[in-house]
Amino acid sequence: MEQIYVTGHRNPDTDSIVSAMAYAALRNATGDRQYAAARLGHISDETRLILNLFGFEPPLLIKSMHTQVLDLDYDVPPILHEAVTVNRVWSAMEDDKHISAIPITDDEGRLRGMMTAGDIAAYDMQTVEAPRLREVPLFNILSVLEGQLLGETEEVVNTISGEVVLALPQSSELPPFRQKDTVLICGNQPDMLQRAVEFGVACIILCQAELPDSVRDASRNTCIISTPFDSYRTVRRIFQAIPVGRLAQRESITAFHLDDYVDEVQEVMQESRYRSYPILDAQDRVVGTLSRYHLIKPRRKQVVLVDHNEAAQSVPGLEETDIIAIIDHHRLADIQTKNPIYFRNEPVGSTCTIVAGMYQERGLMPSPKLAGLMAAAIVSDTVMFKSPTCTPRDRRMAERMAHIADLSLDELGRKIFSASTPEDKPAEQLLFTDFKEFHIAGHDFGVGQITCVDSDRQLKRKDEFLKLMEQTKEEHQYSMILLMLTDVLLEGSKVLCVGGEDTFQQAFNTELKEHEAFLPKVMSRKKQIIPMLSALWG
User: Fold this and answer.
1) Tens digit of each residue's pLDDT (9 = 90 or more) over 369-395
2) Mind listing the domains of the chain with CATH numbers?
3) Cα–Cα distance for residue pair 451/382, rounded to 1 Å
4) How much of the chain exceeds pLDDT 70, in percent?
5) Is 154 buried (19+), middle (13-18) or exposed (0-12) by CB count in 10 A?
6) Cβ(160)–Cβ(203) below 8 Å
7) How far apart are CA 103 and CA 109, in angstroms?
8) Confidence (pTM)
9) Please, which residues have CB within 8 angstroms of residue 297's CB and are 6 or more apart in sequence?
């Protein structure tokens, strides 16, 4: 079952995090078990406080939705240990003709090499010129020849070595073997068997014949194996008894990991000649193989977007995904989809208000902890119901969730907004914790927001903020960058502006003094800052 990721926007605020968690929990509770909440950035101190308050862990952090190797329908051929026989590898390839290579692994499942039909064919040709076995495990030979060990030698034999010799009927008195380091293949040839045992050859392969009692009962060092195969098949198969690890390609193997991006994989493949590439997991264990044809039609990740519907605020690689739903309370932006989707956009102050309503519509009562979490998100996003985006519905839904959680909204709000911002927190972290990028009428700009009860204390770091904002403006080529210090007690925002100062003063009918202005009753970036700039730019 493929996972469906539910994610809010970049630099997520509490509403973004909680709405993703609540929507995923709703879908999973109603039978769709594949939904998983995700986030696109670090959580703020406020959000961490709220999650800890109700006993929740932050959602999974996702940095990109670009198509990865794990999204491909890659092959999962038999993954064989380096000790298995070449015959076993060949049989696996015969069973599945489209397999071009088989990964060879060690005891831990880690890659030791790759084996192709070409490698087996090349080795087979080499055995014609050099018909010799080198310390081949006895069990391997018994396996490929479907053989049986006849009697025991004076010393235990674990491996077989020697030149492979085929004994044919002959008129010459000279035996076909000249050295004890010989693997003799013969049939119903009692005299040859007797002479070979007396000479002490290393191994005799007896093809479709019975072993004479005189040889069976004799004390010997020769290992004797019977096989149901004829001499020709025995000669061909015995060389396939060697451990495949000896033949597997070990040098210059190109491997990919499950989390590698397909774009990067394609570039590597264009510079190499292999037909098949091993795929490794995070522990470098082999999980499958990848070929060029797998890249033609990858599976697309599935996502649900909450609390945003603008590409610049969403996950990198969104264009490579299938968006299946959007739940939001912002203006309609620029996201496009391939197919019709479930889209729910309502003019309320918090996305959690919408999600909580969906619980009600489906007849599902959230748990007290989850209800408390959603109540906190609504309080946070509506700035204790003082934001102009707040509606009576937000307050009613927050009260309903608070009743389920058995908590006071006033106490919850004071706890959320009285949490002071640490003095030693980096200015960069403060600016970008709740920062959104916008593209309106040819203008690219960014707006950060810090909700607090101590805007004067924050302004003591004004020079730090302005320097960082200037750097950010140049790096991203913004026409303007704003930082809202939204003060809950003052019921307004002290705004720092870098770039587009004339535009700002005209839009808000105010005067900037040293890049600073106070906008009374302005609490919402979405409903009070962005609409005014949009109207000015037409």
Assistant:
1) 999 999 999 999 998 898 888 999 999
2) 4-67+301-417 (3.90.1640.10), 427-537 (3.10.310.20)
3) 11
4) 97
5) exposed
6) yes
7) 10
8) 0.68
9) none
